[in-house]
Amino acid sequence: MPAQLPFSPAILFDTSFDAAQFEVLALDLFRYQAAHNEVYRQYISLLGVDPSAVCTLIDIPFLPVELFKQWRIVTGTLPVEHIFTSSGTTGSITSSHYVADLGLYRQSYTRCFELFYGSVARYAVLALLPAYLERSGSSLVYMAQDMITQSQRPESGFYRYDHARLAGTLQALNAKKQATLLLGVTFGLLDFAESYPQPLPHTIIMETGGMKGRRREMVRPEVHDILQKAFGVSAIHSEYGMTELLSQAYSEGNGLFRCPPWMRILLRDPYVPTHTLLPPTIEQVSIAGAINVIDLANIHSCAFIATADLARQYADGCFEVLGRMDNSDIRGCNLLVT
């Protein structure tokens, strides 16, 4: 008989959690996944951690994100409904996220967008995601396609490399003062900005990261400065998500990200991967470290993931992504790699 979930996933998107409520749900989910996720259970055992002794968020072991490249990370016995895969360079191993409930993913990104920006139906949604459209299995493309459908506007759609048509559509939408979302991979937005700079006062420009070897690597402030000048906007927005998560954080400017109530960022010592840092206090102002993510929407996979990203976190909970760890694929706690 299937194991009973520790809570109904529906409560995640109807409740604004305070810190105490989030911790209760996260610890309940940890105990459930420690018992019913075979890869996570083995990882915890190899660390010598007794799940019954885990009493706070910083005690929870976080599964290295690299293990999604080599293992089937699932919790429970529900059949897999969809598999999302990560992008990668030629010949590299990509991550696979086995998703048992696509409806949960749709609820997560729809509710999260509403919390930050209001209903998707308010916007024309234009997606500039060429690298992602050239492969199958992208969770970002899945989300963008659904948002395009939700927008119900004829201009909404994928524009890939058709920059001339995109420029004309944006010009027409802004002439009508239509609220518009331009969601793009970083190199695509930079290419478009070079060829078709124009003032876009009614457009939210949101970059999803990624040069994909198409351009030299640039720090986020440099990218945002170029895009702000090209499109005459006061801020460039950003999305922080990944294949292995069903939730994402958003930045409405200045590179500062915030999470929805069912997602939380903790930082760890980059040199001691099992040591999660206490959140910063007002006196500390901020702390820096590697990103651990708690995503309660990952109820059927693993909700506790150690990423390869570095960040600075502030006392109010927002965070700034600083870059990637060097040699991230061979760092620290890869205890299950054989």
Structural features, described:
The protein is an alpha/beta fold. Among the domains are: 12-19 and 59-80 and 259-338, Roll (Luciferase, domain 3); 119-240, Rossmann fold (3-Layer(aba) Sandwich), CATH 3.40.50. It has eight helices and 15 strands. The protein has helices at 19-36, 38-47, 102-117, 130-133, 139-151, 163-175, 186-195, 220-231; strands at 63-64, 82-85, 96-99, 124-128, 157-158, 180-184, 203-207, 237-240, 249-251, 256-258, 263-269, 272-276, 286-295, 304-314, 319-324. The strands form two sheets. Strands 1, 4, 5, 6, 7, 8, 9, 10, 11, 12, 13, 14 and 15 form a 13-stranded mixed sheet that branches. It has a two-stranded antiparallel ribbon with strand order 2-3. Helix 7 packs parallel to helix 8 (220-231).
Helix content: 25-40%
Instruction: Provide the β-strand percentage band.
Output: 15-25%
Count the helices. How many? 8
Structural shape: globular
What oligomeric assembly is this protein in? single chain
Main beta-sheet strand count, sense and barrel state: 13 strands, mixed
Low-confidence stretches: 328-338
The CA-CA distance between the termini, in Å, is: 32 Å
What's the topology here?
Elements: H1 19-36, H2 38-47, E1 63-64, E2 82-85, E3 96-99, H3 102-117, E4 124-128, H4 130-133, H5 139-151, E5 157-158, H6 163-175, E6 180-184, H7 186-195, E7 203-207, H8 220-231, E8 237-240, E9 249-251, E10 256-258, E11 263-269, E12 272-276, E13 286-295, E14 304-314, E15 319-324
Parallel strand pairs: 1-14, 4-5, 4-6, 6-7, 7-8
Antiparallel strand pairs: 2-3, 8-9, 9-10, 10-15, 11-12, 11-13, 13-14, 14-15
Helix pairs in contact: 1-2, 7-8
